[in-house]
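Lab notebook page, bench 4
Experiment: in silico fold of construct C2
Operator: M.H.
Input chain length: 606 residues
Purpose: comparison with the prior construct
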Amino acid sequence: MKFIKWLLALLVTLVVAVTLYLTVFFDPNDFKPEIVNAVKKQTGRELVIGDDLSWTFFPTVGINLGGISLSNPEGFTPKAMLEVNKAVAEVELMPLFSKQIEIAQLSLDGAKINLVTRKNGSSSLDGLTGKGAEKTATPAEPSAKAQLTSIDVGGVSITNTEINLIDEAKGQTQTLTLKQFTLGAFSLDKFAPMAYEFAATLPDMTVSSKGEGQIKLSHDFNQLVIEKLDIETQVEGEGIPNKKLTAEVSLNSQIALDKKQLSADISKLTAMDINAAGKLAVNYGGKVPQINADLQVGDIDLDALLPKSDTAEKQAAATPSQTQAVEPDLTALNGLDAKLTLAVKSIKVANLSTQNWLMDLGIKNGVVDLKQLTADLYQGKLMLNAQVDARSKVASYQFDKQISGVQIRPLLKDAAELEILAGTANFNVKGKGKSLIPEQLKKNLLANGRFDITDGALYGVNIPQMIRSAQAKLKGDMSADTKEERKTDFSSLTGNFSLENGVATNPDLAMSSPLLRVAGKGSANLLTEGLDYRLTTTLVNSLKGQGGSEKDALAGIDIPLAITGTFQKPEYALDTQALLNNQLKEETDKAKDKLKDSLLKKLGGF
């Protein structure tokens, strides 16, 4: 029992002795100039420790700091980039007897960070990578740096931190709240565990995010490595698809701080039921950052992401003239130098299904260059290259699009709920124009192209039936009609077309079938969706097997058809007057031939 009492007394005496030593003989304020100078050399910024450093002895030995601030670059407002009301650095006991500091735990609470971006593009983060050290380098710098690299941190805990993102160009301030950030035992060239959780309330949305991973900083402060970083983010707001978005990311990253280069290997990226993976590289050392991305994406259903509400549609229809369309602001493209290689398993948009997308896209100096885009489309292939030039206020564009081997009927049905045409389609078009406003797109587009459809059918009109009806009407039966399917089969349908001032013109439609030859020309107005088209049909053989006789009276006669109405409701009609005129002309020609023959006989064969 006495032994225990003596042991406790010894421990108390030791603690009291240590306390007296630290408070009387070891003043932590002696290290303030070293800390301030080290920060000045590394960042070029002024570190102010307003309050005296004091000891804390319970529950652990530590240094209590207060009134800490780190300045923004000169001329910035606010002047302070970092303000900390209270910070506690818990230190290892034994190294203190050798006047060395090993931080066991660093805790900060109630910090405020002001990150300012000025109108000229400079920011609060400029000069935090050692440039300040170069400007203030002294012969004693190597030893100071060696002392700094010998400091180990047992852990970091940051809570209740406010981050203000101030954009002077936009006159906008956004506030983020870092609820907590923890860093485990940290030494240079060794991985340390880290975790964070933050929330933000922005004008049109709220954001919450949390993550954890491992971080390592090289001994020369030039290489930062982040491994096994898992991030989960949730965004809510009226402008978000379905008003809520949840995203998860898993990645490994390396940042070359000296070269200002970042690379990331993204093993998992999920958002809105979309799965992706890929690689990202960013060089942010120049005035314009260089970005290279290579992504592989799964199935994308854009229809599910952007549902249309009846209310929104009614409001849009009710106020079309009250909102004047403006050109989209693409000035941000001038600040990008990016290359994107993208592979997508499938995309569904506007009820249109496509598979196996491959895209090669570049953005540089305000020009978006879609070098290649291919996709599988309704048993065929889509190929496209395009360019958008956003260097002017009104953007210009050009494109070259080809479609081959596509089944046109299911495509038209899914895309526009139209069933007017079937067959295997080949299509190519080249065009250019200015303005990205939808109405201006239609007006300003200049394009030329050609189409070729084989083994197909034209729905909505039965040309053989219309011919039979015309035959009956010419014989006086004005009530002739039939309930046969309105469909005309053909072996080929070809033509060229041009587009100008919102009107598509086709001068040379040619359709061939075993019974018919059809030629056509006309126009379609993309602005009003009106049709004005004329077809001329010639009966090659008899309509036997199609409800006709062995020899038809209209064989060899040109039969005119008119197509009017709209894209959604085309109307087909037989031009009976033109048909009658054609037949009268033929009968007149026959009468002339008979008269000529009769006169020749009377004149003795002359």
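Observations: The first strand starts at residue 47 and ends at 49. The CA atoms of residues 273 and 300 lie 8 Å apart.
Next step: discuss at group meeting.
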